[in-house]
Amino acid sequence: MAVKLTKSELEVMNTIWQEGRALARNEIIELCVNPSWSPNTIHALLNGLIRKGMIREAGFVKRNKTYGRLYAAKVSGEDYYASTLFAEQNTRAIPIYFSALLRNENLTEETVAEMEAMLAERKKKAAKKEE
Fold first, then answer.
1. Total Cβ atoms within 10 A of residue 73
2. Which of 8, 84, 94, 130: CA 20 to 30 A from 66?
3. Would you write out the chain's pLDDT as a tens digit for each of its 131 residues?
């Protein structure tokens, strides 16, 4: 069940994911690099992300004389991007994506080793299920 995010919603989510902590509305505005939305639309974006189950209210923070809500991700960036990749019910495309990833010139040996370890772990889990 992949959630469809607009470009603006994805910008907000990427900011929250990159920070790795709950953020206030003003922090999101300050941290977002070249937002495609006006600062006045942040309230609507945050409410939409709450409705879609992507973020949650995570408390309050005092700023000057007022309190503002904190927003935290309910879905990790990894889970979101994986769900969008697998949302297309064409799982035959996954090897094509994987192949393209492996051809990327910026891929380091360290990253390849991490990917190999992940695949080995996945194979172990699959073998245990078959037993």
1. 21
2. 8
3. 578 899 999 999 999 999 999 999 989 998 988 888 877 899 999 999 999 999 999 988 887 787 788 999 999 998 898 888 776 666 777 788 888 888 888 889 998 899 899 999 999 988 888 77
Structure tokens of 67? 């309190």
Read off the tokens for 122. 């996945």
| Distance, CA of 89 to CA of 115 (rounded, Å) | 23
In 3D space, the residue among 77, 78, 63, 65 whose CA is nearest the CA of residue 29 turns out to be 63
pTM (predicted TM-score): 0.73
- Which residues is 67 bridged to in the sheet? 62
User: What are the residues whose beta carbons fall under 8 Å from the beta carbon of 102, sequence distance 6 or more?
Assistant: 112
Give the largest Cα separation in the chain, rounded: 61
